[in-house]
């Protein structure tokens, strides 16, 4: 009985967080270890289904880096990277889309459905809801820059009590255009803004933003970030994620989080306990 | 971090139960120690608000025995009991109603509202939704026998996302009739049936139904109950509660529980863990 | 036949008034003789049910002075008055609330239901819809000053075609606070404003506002009232009611009436004939 | 004041009748003196608007005998009658329709609108809602026998809070068919059945059904009517109206009334007082 | 097969036009040869039903000149014209209304219903939705100047998927007023404005606006029209139609068309092919 | 002008077909040449968008044979066929799904969106809406037999005015199950039944069912089909399609068509002209 009582009491520690987030939209960029490790995948799905059942409205945007590479390799299609971007020609784009929309997207959908949610997987080509144009005048081929999001498509799905799972592919301007490969972090940020989300969470394989001593900076505002960018503390691969966070909070999303997806239940830890598992950005 | 992780994992143990009960109506007869002890009241409110936030639809029916006695004493109104029923004349009825509808009902409403739910307190006189006639031809004065429940009044309240808190008073047939004092256990059972509730929980000051050796019988079906009534195992004050349980399960409520309200978070223990805290009745 | 024809013609004299008020909200402060005398109560209920059936949306706020005194006396709880306010300590508050919410409120609800309306009795504690703070820094104990009204609770009840009957009790800021005793006239006025009511009627035991010669002043605007207050014509017990009227008309209620509740069918006389039974205030 | 009080009390005598009929559909065949005499028209409109405002849903079907004759005469178009039916050729039909749909229908609509209702005038040709075929194999030319009523057209109008005013014209089977002249009594009866009306009232220029001594028979059931038809008490022009009443009550309309439209406010007298002004038929 | 393929391809040429106009309101002033010639009537109905089925919302306003004359002649009622207006006394008005509301209106309704639409014919007297006052201080008797349109009546009809067919009659200010004869072109223009229509089409017996050489001017803006009026190119009977067009486009209607109703399927030619059949006006 | 008039008349030949099918659901199995040849793809999209705009509710189910082979080849994954079924192991299944859900599905969605519809591409894994079990006890590996369709997912999409485009993949019973490859013809048939579709069309690379002389059989009922199956006229690759047709018409779909997708606009020819382009099956 004592053990059970402890259980009940622990469940109840979630109450203030549930009250705070119920009926709010929370956008989650899903990627890294949390998307690969079977245990972490399972934990992720449990967390998501809990959010869903307590009335929170999650939206998932996923990437797909490694599996894309695997297939490109199998198909003997080499790819180059420039400025961290994959140079994407039509042949590569075809594989990118198949892996994202046809493999990873449905895998996540299945994961959530089998844990008790109702998820629907789409890409920006569905109902044409994400439009893009070539990034930096086409410097990276079919890597796209989002020009327009029609959020009503996502809202319809959310309002019918489904969880949307979005592959980061955008439609092109013409019928024969193969579409665009868009950065998933950036897509998540733009979608969070278009949905006026309460929060955006980036699941990463880092503990968050670290200071020069390697200590986690658990909370940063826009000015502090700018200083850390200037002095080089934030640099390299962390830069685009931090920029996606700033973009979101600058456009109405209340908080953006970079969290450590390698930790089990990192989403629940972040949302339902008073101890963060990463860095939170606000304006 | 480990402590937090443990928290998250514990919260997630509630998932299968939440899935099972979400959108279901659960009727709770609130009484005994859980209604008097300040700590237990608080725990009760936390449990209720959690149910409410995870999409369960609770309905509260309360009694009020001791406070009624206090006021009758203060007013020098003696009362007799016959067959466990309070002989209720008009003067007594006036006090019974004031205490139930005017004091205890609003106290519970306030308790829930301050913990984050939205509760509305009514009695069977509101919109005339519980009608009664004299029990056993008036042998106990204004003690009533429910003749009709208009459940649409409760459904309206539930559908607007309020928790109804019901005082066990019924309206009489005429304008000048002072109304009826109705047994709260019985009212709860009838209301559960009229709402096609999933479950009914009776919070009591007993551990549940005990066998002749004093061991808890954690689950009973109708036939077993009849046998225990025959051999005298179930007797005395337990009889009416057990009958209210049987009435509910015989008329479509899936399960009826007699639980020990003296235990903290007994509702959550019963609904959200795999260990019961009383006796469950089914058909 | 001639008699019947006369009846029909008389009924039709109500047509222009019905047209004018149909679908409008009319707030009624119910009190005084009309709440005590059995015949007047009956007439009041008939009037209300007629309003209800011809599509007018009445909202009742009641007081309860004499019955509160009776119970305080019976319980040997003396009370003092200062500036016309009952000094309200916790013990007194408990009785005040029981009488208002548990006795008078349900009596009025029953009265209306038995005449053919569907009424629901609530207090400001239900769904926490009237919040208050101590009046004049607590000079009168638990006498409260309304700080917030959540009118959606009343609107929900009205939209489901019920008549709300409101006991003038407000909730306190904390869970253990016993709540506030609020002035019913003032509560009626604030509720009328929050509901953007067409009219507010105060049923009183006076013929209305009289001039220095004792002649009824059948209509007054704000400026005229101010003059009459200055020259002492309006004074004493009439002052707070007049102020409640001014507060209402200053905040969007079209007309406020002080009418003589001692006259049978005073509400119908005021609303459905061209002869007033009191004083009407406008801006 | 006494006079006004009497007024209020008289208005209240309507309460039980309003309660009984509110939200019910009442079909009224409008014709005879009540449609011609300016004072009676006015009284009719007042009665109708009162019904409308107290939540009753009236539907008007009108005839138009005399004005049709006037125009046929002016246009030198003679008409014959056989079995009480106007032999209707195409030229006559054109005039019949113009007078019914273009003159009388809009006159009634205007009458009701100017008294404060919102009325819309249509004929059976609108949305094709009354279909007919030739009566008795075309023995009377374009006199039609109703073959189908699409009541959803009327229900749409009623649900938007309009009073439908129906001209007794039906559409033919082909595009070039001029339509059918249908008996207004019969149309009223069929419409009442299709709308599952509570009552149908026929406004006539008779006091109702009289016995052999000329005394009014104020209430008749189907069997009694059959006996009176057999013994010749009901005969001639009264027969079709009585048959229309029987048809209605045989098919679900609760009561059918033949009332004396020459009496002012006959509708109100019938519906809102306890003294009938004609004969009521029930099953 | 080739013939059929040609058919399919031709049907598909309508696609861009359907996309452009679907869900838009298009007001059509129906008159002239298109309303008289049986073949043209048929073609008109086909066009209308096609618009209706592809999701366009047509509203018809009709005139009735010649049939009114025929009946006035038959009834030996002479009429004078002044400034192109029929001097309308009460006797004439009665005939005008009967022909418009009772004959032509129902004929058009029938025409559309039999081709597969659901049309409802009303006049401005229905629900009082077009109000007028005497034009030019009554210089032309009962010829009216529209003072108010209540477009919600039309919107209700449109939203229930009916086509409204409107007779150009307005209600007067008093109950006994016979109503007003209003110019159908002007009524169409005002209705188009009140409905925020996409387009208004005037079906006429002219090819459109011609220049001094008799060549069709296929498109004109407001300034060009003003110049053509000044130099006398637009004059006589064309002036009021052109003014009705300008009134519409000046008040929010995107385009107004004067088209040649003598050409079969002129509406479809105008809306669904790239070749106009008249003159289009824009701001 | 004559040319244009011819255009208008031709468009109008579609009217009776539009009337017949508007608001009906039509399921289309899309495959073969019509899915590969750029011109035919374009024609297909035009046809679909026209159906969509005239109020018909199309649902697309596609296959993907050739592109799957291409990718299996590129990835050096050989596949065997048994009884016309692709033996599908996990490695093959991964490619099948990527091509169907990630490449072909989005290509069709894009095609329709760019022609003016709003299409959303999903597979049976989305919201778990198609469930399957191994066909013939797993004889063909992961080739599945549909066990359940949750049509509400499709209905939600249709009701929001989107065209669903369905990849023939079903979800498995467990979380780690890779899903099932299901026959697209059979999926189309089951979906048509679950949606109570009016029609199902199979776009094939055959002219339809031919008799022994090679002449097209333009219409067949169930009995005739059984005879033709017995005598070997229907055999080989035609058998499964014919069986899918029979399954549909046996379960409530009105008509099933095998049409020649190699003919331009074959859908429009079939639905909107009186000349079929294949074989129609009915019960």
CATH fold-level topology of chain A = Carbamate kinase
Mean pLDDT of chain A: 94
Helix/strand structural class of chain A: alpha/beta
End-to-end Cα distance of chain A: 46 Å
Q: Describe the biggest sheet of chain A?
A: 8 strands, mixed
Number of domains of chain A: 1
Name the helix and strand elements of chain A from N-terminus to C-terminus, one letter apiece: HHEHHEHEEHEEEHEEEHEEHHEHE
Number of helices of chain A: 11
CATH architecture of chain A: 3-Layer(aba) Sandwich
Count of strand segments of chain A: 14
Beta-strand content of chain A: 15-25%
Summarize the largest interface: chains and residue counts: A-F, 37 and 38 residues
Low-confidence stretches of chain A: none
- Across the major sheet of chain A, the strand order is 5-8-2-1-11-13-14-12
CATH class of chain A: Alpha Beta
Helix content of chain A: 40-55%
| Rg over C-alpha atoms of chain A, rounded to the nearest angstrom | 19 Å
Task: Report on the architecture of this protein.
Chain A is an alpha/beta fold and 283 residues long. The first copy, chain A, has a single domain, classed as Carbamate kinase (3-Layer(aba) Sandwich), CATH 3.40.1160.10. Chain A has an 8-stranded mixed β-sheet with strand order 5-8-2-1-11-13-14-12, sandwiched between helices. A two-stranded antiparallel sheet of chain A has the order 3-4. In chain A, helix 5 crosses helix 6 and helix 8 runs parallel beside helix 10. The longest helix of chain A has 25 residues. The first copy, chain A, is globular, with a radius of gyration of 19 Å. In chain A, 57% of the residues are buried. Chains in contact: A-B, A-F, B-C, C-D, D-E, E-F. At the A-F interface, helix 6 and strand 5 of A face helix 5 and strand 5 of F.
């Amino acid at each position: 009985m004592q053990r059970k009582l402890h259980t009940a009491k622990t469940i109840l520690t979630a109450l203030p967080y549930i009250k705070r987030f119920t009926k709010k939209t929370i956008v989650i960029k899903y990627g890294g270890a949390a998307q690969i490790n079977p245990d972490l995948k399972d934990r992720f799905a449990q967390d998501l289904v809990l959010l869903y059942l307590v009335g929170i409205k999650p939206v998932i945007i996923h990437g797909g880096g490694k599996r894309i590479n695997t297939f490109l390799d199998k198909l003997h299609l080499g790819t180059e990277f420039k400025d961290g971007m994959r140079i994407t020609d039509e042949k590569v784009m075809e594989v990118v889309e198949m892996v994202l929309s046809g493999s990873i997207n449905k895998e996540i959908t299945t994961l959530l459905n089998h844990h008790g949610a109702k998820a629907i997987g789409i890409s920006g080509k569905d109902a044409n809801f994400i439009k893009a144009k070539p990034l930096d005048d086409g410097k990276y081929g079919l890597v796209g820059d989002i020009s327009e999001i029609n959020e009503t498509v996502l809202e319809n799905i959310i309002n019918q009590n489904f969880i949307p799972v979005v592959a980061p592919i955008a439609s092109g301007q013409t019928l024969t255009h193969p579409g665009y490969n868009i950065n998933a972090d950036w897509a998540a940020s733009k979608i969070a803004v278009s949905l006026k989300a309460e929060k955006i969470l980036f699941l990463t394989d880092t503990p968050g933003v670290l200071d020069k001593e390697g200590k986690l900076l658990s909370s940063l505002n826009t000015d502090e970030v700018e200083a850390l960018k200037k002095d080089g503390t934030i640099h390299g691969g962390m830069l685009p994620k931090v920029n996606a966070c700033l973009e979101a909070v600058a456009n109405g999303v209340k908080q953006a989080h970079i969290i450590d997806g390698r930790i089990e239940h990192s989403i629940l830890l972040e949302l339902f306990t008073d101890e963060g598992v990463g860095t939170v950005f606000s304006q």
